[in-house]
Design goal:
Oligomer: single chain
Distance between the termini: 41 Å
Number of helices: 6
Number of strands: 0
Helix content: over 70%
Largest sheet: none
Radius of gyration: 16 Å
Shape: globular
Length: 103
C-alpha cells in the first residue's frame, strides 16, 4: 500500500470514529477514560498538537469543536452527566497509578 492511500484510510477511519462518538453521546468521557484511557478531550488535544506540529495555530476550543461536532459548552450542556462517586473514585485511582509510574 502506498503512503497516500494509507493516510487516506487512516483519515477515513478517524472520521468514522468521530461520527461514532457523536452518535453515541450516551457514552460519557469519564466512561471512555476509565475503559480506554482517552476521551473526546484527549482527541481534541491530539488534534491541536498535530496542527501545531504542522505550523497551524489552533486554540483548544476550536479543536474541541472539530471533535465534538459542536462547541464543547453546548455538548456538555446537552449530553454530559454528573460523574458518579464510583466513577470519580476510579479516576482518582487511575491518576494515582499514572503518577506512581511517572516517578
Amino acid at each position: 500500500m502506498d503512503e497516500q492511500t494509507r493516510i487516506e484510510l487512516e483519515a477515513a477511519a478517524f472520521r468514522r470514529l468521530l461520527q461514532h462518538l457523536r452518535d453515541h453521546t450516551d457514552v460519557q468521557n469519564i466512561d471512555l477514560m476509565l475503559l480506554a484511557d482517552f476521551c473526546r478531550n484527549c482527541l481534541a488535544k491530539w488534534y491541536g498538537a498535530a496542527a501545531k506540529e504542522r505550523g497551524i495555530e489552533m486554540e483548544y476550543p476550536a479543536a474541541q469543536e472539530i471533535i465534538y461536532g459542536m462547541p464543547y459548552a453546548e455538548w456538555k450542556a446537552k449530553y454530559q452527566k454528573e460523574a458518579t462517586p464510583e466513577q470519580l473514585k476510579a479516576m482518582e485511582e487511575i491518576q494515582r497509578r499514572k503518577e506512581a509510574a511517572d516517578h
